[in-house]
Amino acid sequence: MRRKFPWASLPDDKLLKLRLKDLKLTLENTWLEDCLDDLQAELEERDLRIRPHAWLSDEWFSPDTTPGIAIPFYLAHPRLMRLERKMIIDVEGGTRHECMRILRHETGHVVQNAFRLQRRRRWQELFGRSSTHYPRFYRPNPASKNYVQHLRLWYAQSHPDEDFAETFAVWLKPRSDWRKRYAGWPALRKLEYVDEVMEEIAGQRSQLPRSATVHPLNQIETTLAAHYRRKQALYAVNTPRTYDRELHLIFSADPKHRHAPTAASFIRSHRSHFRQIVARWTGEYQLTLDSVLDDMIDRCRELKLRAVGPERQLLADFTVLLTAKTVHSLYSPSRRQWFAL
Which residue, among 318, 305, 309, has the nearest Cα to 253 in the 3D structure? Predict the structure, then answer.
């Protein structure tokens, strides 16, 4: 039975004052156990004897010192998932499908470190050097066929280790049909290499000791409020404030339309729709899109713009504008930010 926690009934302001260690959460009796069981079944089906252990922490990661996976604490309780959604809008790994995608990715890191695959010459030829410094920023090329596409924002392009983890995740996923999906792509060579190496290490044991957990939840002194201030800062983006011309093309500043709804109120009333559609098209985080929408709403107010014309056309035109600005910000020098998983 699900354990009851006194903090689950607290309002947000009081809950945010708690330290992460005060939550006293574990993976036991949560839906995450089922996901981990499914992951083990996928590994067993491939005869991979690696058994990643898992624990709760403040984010997703896999250390190179132990064959394990840290899972963010908010996934262990519905009250914390609601808080995460309120603070960040996205709940990364919040569905079974997305949780499995990330678990397969993190297992790629586990397998790489457990068998020291990065030391192999062929691995380095295909993926690069694992010793490459992790960048603060990276600029992906969405059109590149040198990398698989698994997690958002073309994550495989950020670092050789992430490239391997993403390739492994695509390979591991049941019924992924990767040979057909990536036929004709240079990335297929990486998938075929993973297939060869996994067949080679099938039945072998990990070379890493199953040591203690790293940065476990029960040792984190940070309050939830401080945690979310830091996390929100990761999604902050200095988007180009060059909306005026495009906004004038969609909305009207003509005084004769002064009785029409304001453009600011139109965007506010549909912001959830805009966020979700553009996030799905571009892979951008919804919290980042929310800050862009705030800027656009403020600018519409300053320009005294009005929403004139058929609502359907206004929705389509503004969605295109937000998409274009999002893609531009993804590739501008100020927006090559690294988001660690």
Answer: 305
Tokens linked to 55: 């624990």
Token reading at 161: 């280790």
Measured between alpha carbons, how far is 167 from 189 in angstroms, rounded to an integer? 10
Q: What are phi and psi of 198, to 5 degrees?
A: -65, -35
Q: What is the pLDDT of residues 193-222, one digit of tens each?
A: 999 999 999 999 887 877 779 999 999 999
The upper half-sphere exposure of residue 230, i.e. CA atoms within 13 Å in the direction of its Cβ, equals 9
Beta bridge partners of 61: 70
Q: Are 340 and 162 in contact (CB under 8 A)?
A: no
User: Per-residue pLDDT tens for 58-112?
Assistant: 999 999 989 999 999 999 999 999 999 999 988 999 999 999 999 999 999 999 9
Residues contacting residue 229 through CB under 8 Å, at least 6 positions apart:
none
